[in-house]
Design brief:
Rossmann fold, 6 helices, 42% helix, 16% strand, five-stranded parallel β-sheet, two-stranded antiparallel sheet, single chain
Length: 195
């Protein structure tokens, strides 16, 4: 079983720490990895190289670590990048822009719905919360990571299992859950070379 991986995109260090603490309280998994970045560019770079089980993102973040002014469009760009690279990944948006109806509509339209945990239930892939509703956000983090931990606990064995990336392993685990299995076995088929 691979450990859960969470990406927190938040430029305020105190807010980032509060979200990280909420993630660690959510599930009993000491080896859970919580990556924290404070800008859109770093977040998008991470999606190109790593898989995650959950993203918690502020909307008003700087473009790069050298930018001085946070911009809510940068957070929306992160959400769009997540949708392109990991379309079934749940996102929790925690932002002071969480009450703006135009922003909420755009966020919800961008997110769509899916069944990321193989439970046969379509869920909104993006859950927006205003910053003053942190307790509600923390409940959503707990629920999402609890479901992710359930998927991640399905053992994946076999000769090809060690070569799987986290996202590939999660896909195998979800397929096992959908099929009613309590475990999955990955067999790596070799190719016959032709002269």
């Amino acid at each position: 079983m691979s450990s859960l991986r969470v990406l927190v995109v938040e430029d305020d260090p105190d807010e980032a720490q509060a979200v990280e603490d909420a993630c660690r309280r959510a599930v009993d998994q000491p080896d859970m990895v919580v990556e924290v970045v404070g800008d859109a560019s770093s977040a998008v770079d991470l999606f190109g190289s790593q898989d995650f089980d959950l993203v918690v993102c502020d909307l008003a973040i700087p473009h790069t670590i050298h930018s001085l002014v946070p911009d809510r469009d940068e957070g929306l760009k992160v959400i769009e990048a997540v949708r392109r690279t990991q379309p079934g990944l749940p996102i929790i948006v925690l932002s002071e822009h969480g009450k703006d109806p135009r922003i909420l509509r755009r966020i919800i339209e961008e997110g769509g719905s899916a069944d990321p945990y193989g439970l046969g239930v379509g869920r909104s892939m993006i859950n927006p919360f205003p910053k003053e509703a942190f307790l509600d956000c923390e409940e959503a983090i707990t629920a999402s990571l609890g479901r992710s931990a359930g998927v991640a606990s399905i053992p994946v064995t076999g000769p090809g299992a060690g070569a799987l990336k986290v996202g590939e392993e999660r896909a195998v685990q979800i397929l096992a859950r959908v099929a009613g299995g309590a475990a999955a076995r990955v067999v790596k088929a070799g190719r016959k070379s032709t002269p």
